[in-house]
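To close the chapter, one final illustration. This time we ask the reader to focus less on the individual chains and more on the assembly as a whole: which components sit near each other, and how the overall shape emerges from the parts.
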Amino acid sequence: MARMSVFRFSALALLLLSACCWAYNEVGPSQEDDSAELSVSELLERANSNLIRSANDPILTEGDIAIASEDERNADPCTSQGCKWGKNSDGKVYVPYYITNHFSDREKAIITRGLESFSSFSCIRFRPSRSSDRDWLSIESQNGCYSFVGRRGGKQVVSLARRGCLYHGTVQHELLHALGFNHEQTRSDRDNHIKVLLQNVQSGMEHNFRKIATLNQGTPYDYNSVMQYHRTAFSKNNQPTMVPIPDPNVSFGNAKEMSRNDKARLNTLYKCCECPHEHIIKINIHIHMYSTLSLDLIPLCAVSLLQKNHFQMC
Ligand SMILES: [Zn+2]
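The assembled structure is written out below.
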């Protein structure tokens, strides 16, 4: 009888242990379903809230931007020093990455899908790193979701914690940081588009709403950017911390993946739409003609060049 009890106890312990390990190894369907309605901004805030950070973790600002020192809080390294990844002679920008073995196959597939999505709308090509690479992204499951802004030189960590960061839009968001982009609400021209209500911001979080010299690339302020935080981000009282101007009821901060402007801005920064001269087909066209076309039918490069009254195709 006693032997039977021991057996039952062992079997139960084994069952509990395997259930625990399964839960740790895979993001369960219920967690995925719970998150389906959340924007990238909400997912990031949820994943990064209440983290206990250690001395080995980088300093974070604006929720998920890693910085090497306090001096970097008020400067965008991309505008002060340059931060772009180099362009190859074939016109592509190859960004080496290494995915650490923290992740399950399913989690790796989410990350890879995010990396590969950039190939469909830009000249960015994330590719597996080689021993000869000088600079590369090390994609790891560290403490929360975060990335440095732009190319830093050498190995730089992009953290996508297994708990909370593994969604298509959050992967794109962190990769955009690594490519040189900041949050939409910190844009140099943001005061024309959103009003920041500091009285509703959690004490000590005010720095997250600082304004910096950002790389806007001539693109309009975009409420639907995957880099725009949501209405109550860092709120201490559930009241808005940001309100759109002039219409306070406009929806914003709800993006679940990169917007058209996010893609256009990326293409402009990396000059993805510029091709070898002999391959250019330049079509002069008046802007009013675009008004009759669905935006989806206009090539991305054309959108980024709309202000120049022509578009070009390679
Ligand atoms: Zn961010």
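The chain is about 30% helix and 15% strand. Residues 64-65, 173, 177, 183 surround zinc ion (CB under 6 Å). With these observations in hand, you are ready for the problems at the end of the chapter.
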